[in-house]
Amino acid sequence: MSVTIDISGLHRERVAVVPSPLAELCMALHALAEPGHHPGLQGWATGVTARLDPHLADRMCEADFLWRTTFSDLFLPYAGAAGGSTLPGATLAEELDLVDKLTDEQFVDAALEFTCALPYDAQGAGALADPASRRRALELAAARGPRPAEFTERLLADPPRIRAWLRQFLEDCDEAFFADTWSRLRHQLAADARRKTDLLGRRGLGEALASVSAAVTLDEDAGRIVVDKLGHGHTSVRAGSLLLVPTSLGWPHLMVLHRYGWQPVIHYPVGSPELTVPTSVEQLTLRMTALSHPMRMRLCRSLARSAFTTSELAQTHGMTAPEISRHLSVLKKAGLLTTRRRGRYVLHQLDVTMVARLGSDFLEGILR
Questions:
Q1: What three-state secondary structure class fits 86?
Q2: How many angstroms separate the CA atoms of 343 and 94, rounded?
Q3: Rounded distance between C-alpha atoms, residue 325 and residue 30, angstroms
């Protein structure tokens, strides 16, 4: 499972690493709405929430599905600009101006991303023009609850009104808490962008992408970038550019904008608490599948306490050696066992550190 970006014909000068204040505001709003995703930001979130005006806090709930359950592409408006080469603005006001330049169709379709009603990485009829898409969006929004349903009805009935509401809301968030946060974060993000740009110039795109995340790889032979994600998607730079946008508040979320007709964007976390290479979705699936078998669970109980040979395990569990070997092979392929030789015997033991990481690996994998 992965999201791929076709970069055939992409030249170095069409790759840009640029911070985005609006994208960072999206992550700030998400961290406030879902503090459980960001344990390292709980002190910041608690401080902001404590100082927040009650009226603004209520307004945050009106459309929080734009940043809580999805990360709406409205927060990356430069990707929707004609020509495919527009860069993020230096200020929040500049980027809000880019939101204003989106067509009503672009704005509505991006805002309705949370409903999953419209095709994302393929061409399709928008909800403003197509009655069937409109009905489906309304039905799916209603299934999410009264607030999403009311928002969708107002959005489809009067897009300019919602556009004005959203801009005013984001400007109020900037005044209330984000301007101070951005003044502290923008230097870190700018420094990371400079490092990535320098690496891009000296070592090439592959090295630059590797520094973004081990989950992002360059397949030079196929002319594509592969991002390890729990899902499928595809996009192409076509005649446009590739944008890499760093976020300080975003870990563990590694996002790829692959909306049809929009410029590809990789929105990646910097300064993440990852101490090791993130586990791939494929490897995570192997490990969870390996542990789902009741016999392998029983073997893990023994192997967690001590190292055993295949014969010892067969005798303990009343099975044949070949049967035990097959179960051990599954666990070993999943990376959950360590083995060592003692004379002519091979001893197997559970890698308890790896098993202990499964919970955090699973959470990082599904949130990535």
A1: coil
A2: 70
A3: 47
